[in-house]
């Protein structure tokens, strides 16, 4: 029997809000708007855009930025229960996030999620400006080679389909390449439209209670 493994997005999925967007809106550094427009127009990759936006923020405001990100993030209902269900059923749970370690790690630590279960981008506060680092780059198999920042499809491919039943939980266009690889998708927001477009095997959800209920229905006998 294949082992189940869940690849779960963070911003807009585990959290109700997008933390990077919230940080930029709150601190509103000069120069953000042109970068956002380039990302939307796809003349700049998400990786390039996120890196460029954080470079607009001085490291002297580190404590303020970190505290704001942690204090203003809200966790989607049912998340603790999903983790308990995964432990009970021996489902491997991984966080695959385009978020940044300085808010992802502390927000997940309270749920007992270890750092080795989390794939996200890193931050360097040693200079005058915040520098984002990319410890999980694309493999050559990625269609968006070099542009992902944190490449979800590369992580998914390390869990071969012959051995694992692969499940993705996500909400946006950054989850779409991975959604095309896995066996089952739990989708909300923009990811629903993309899954509909390609007729992928997906289930809509609003809370993690919805995910748990469906996982129980789909559980191998």
From TrEMBL:
<dbReference type="InterPro" id="IPR017718">
    <property type="entry name" value="HAD-SF_hydro_IB_MtnX"/>
</dbReference>
<comment type="pathway">
    <text>Amino-acid biosynthesis; L-methionine biosynthesis via salvage pathway; L-methionine from S-methyl-5-thio-alpha-D-ribose 1-phosphate: step 4/6.</text>
</comment>
<keyword id="KW-0028">Amino-acid biosynthesis</keyword>
<comment type="similarity">
    <text>Belongs to the HAD-like hydrolase superfamily. MtnX family.</text>
</comment>
<dbReference type="Pfam" id="PF12710">
    <property type="entry name" value="HAD"/>
</dbReference>
<dbReference type="InterPro" id="IPR050849">
    <property type="entry name" value="HAD-like_hydrolase_phosphatase"/>
</dbReference>
<dbReference type="InterPro" id="IPR006384">
    <property type="entry name" value="HAD_hydro_PyrdxlP_Pase-like"/>
</dbReference>
<protein>
    <recommendedName>
        <fullName>2-hydroxy-3-keto-5-methylthiopentenyl-1-phosphate phosphatase</fullName>
        <ecNumber>3.1.3.87</ecNumber>
    </recommendedName>
</protein>
<dbReference type="InterPro" id="IPR023214">
    <property type="entry name" value="HAD_sf"/>
</dbReference>
<comment type="function">
    <text>Dephosphorylates 2-hydroxy-3-keto-5-methylthiopentenyl-1-phosphate (HK-MTPenyl-1-P) yielding 1,2-dihydroxy-3-keto-5-methylthiopentene (DHK-MTPene).</text>
</comment>
<dbReference type="GO" id="GO:0043716">
    <property type="term" value="F:2-hydroxy-3-keto-5-methylthiopentenyl-1-phosphate phosphatase activity"/>
</dbReference>
<keyword id="KW-0486">Methionine biosynthesis</keyword>
<keyword id="KW-0378">Hydrolase</keyword>
<dbReference type="InterPro" id="IPR036412">
    <property type="entry name" value="HAD-like_sf"/>
</dbReference>
């Amino acid at each position: 029997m294949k082992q189940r493994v869940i690849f779960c997005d963070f911003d807009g999925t585990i959290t109700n809000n997008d933390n990077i967007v919230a940080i930029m809106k709150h601190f509103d550094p000069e120069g953000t708007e042109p970068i956002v427009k380039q990302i939307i127009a796809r003349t700049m990759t998400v990786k390039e855009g996120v890196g460029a936006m954080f470079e607009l923020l001085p490291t002297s405001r580190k404590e303020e930025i970190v505290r704001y990100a942690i204090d203003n993030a809200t966790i989607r209902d049912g998340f603790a229960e999903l983790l308990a269900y995964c432990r009970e059923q021996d489902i491997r749970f991984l966080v695959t996030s385009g978020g940044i370690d300085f808010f992802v790690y502390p927000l997940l630590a309270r749920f007992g999620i270890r750092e080795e279960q989390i794939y996200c981008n890193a931050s360097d506060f040693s200079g005058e400006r915040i520098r984002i680092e990319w410890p999980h780059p694309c493999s050559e198999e990625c269609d968006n080679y070099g542009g992902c920042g944190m490449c979800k499809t590369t992580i998914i491919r390390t869990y071969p389909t012959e051995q694992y039943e692969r499940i993705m939980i996500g909400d946006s266009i950054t989850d779409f390449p991975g959604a095309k690889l896995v066996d089952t998708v739990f989708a909300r927001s923009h990811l629903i439209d993309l899954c509909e477009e390609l007729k992928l095997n997906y289930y809509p959800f609003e809370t993690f209670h919805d995910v748990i209920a469906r996982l129980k229905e789909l559980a191998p006998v």
